[in-house]
């Protein structure tokens, strides 16, 4: 199952987030500590999205190949600094394709999105939910995967002007109701606020003055990491994080 992280805080290099920690996301790609529901490594791709320090929409770099073998990312990560980052490494669910476009972060406008988990009974279990989307959205999914459909469902609510935390919570509730036992750990950010769910998978939170980091696994031994219990919705900014119960589906 994929591993992901989101950071908002003082500008840091992508290298400091992705490579330098003792249990960094790059290390988690081949030695994750907490894989659930199958899978041993996260070798089916990686993606990084970051907000340019000068402002503007996020930039992404995604590939459907292992992060550890990418020859471009180390230099890019050393040279790039950002105060808001969302990154993921992917272990494709059995039956789902390995493609550059199947890797998070998914994006539109100011938004970056990631899913760690699986929709059970895919795709039939969520046919009715998918049917509520405009056909154009279905025909232009990033990839024929559960994660891309989850993004389309959240994005549909964001486009309608819903509050991001409400859009994420409602999507988790309706997918959990349609596809019980799904694992629906989501991350959504606009570069200022991070909305995260713990729904079937591990999630950890680290807060420091003016900075917050959410990650599938703590990436170092800092005692400041807190495990977020299952069934929670986290809304975090540089001012702090609020953890609430996810509404039931
Ligand atoms: N099910 C999603 C996919 O295949 C996410 C995978 C994961 O969390 N491992 O892309």
From TrEMBL:
InterPro entries documented for this protein: EgtC (IPR017808), EgtC-like (IPR026869), EgtC_Actinobacteria (IPR032889), Gamma-glu_amide_hydrolase (IPR052373), GATase_2_dom (IPR017932), Ntn_hydrolases_N (IPR029055)
Catalytic activity: gamma-L-glutamyl-hercynylcysteine S-oxide + H2O = S-(hercyn-2-yl)-L-cysteine S-oxide + L-glutamate
Keyword set, alphabetical order: Glutamine amidotransferase, Hydrolase, Transferase
Protein's GO biological process: ergothioneine biosynthetic process
Its EC number(s): 3.5.1.118
Pathway: Amino-acid biosynthesis; ergothioneine biosynthesis
GO molecular function: hydrolase activity, acting on carbon-nitrogen (but not peptide) bonds, in linear amides; transferase activity
Superkingdom of source: Bacteria
Domain Glutamine amidotransferase type-2: from-to ranges: 2-249
Protein's UniProt keywords contain Acyltransferase: no
Record function comment: Catalyzes the hydrolysis of the gamma-glutamyl amide bond of hercynyl-gamma-L-glutamyl-L-cysteine sulfoxide to produce hercynylcysteine sulfoxide, a step in the biosynthesis pathway of ergothioneine.
Name of this chain's protein: Gamma-glutamyl-hercynylcysteine sulfoxide hydrolase
Organism: Micromonospora haikouensis
Gene: egtC
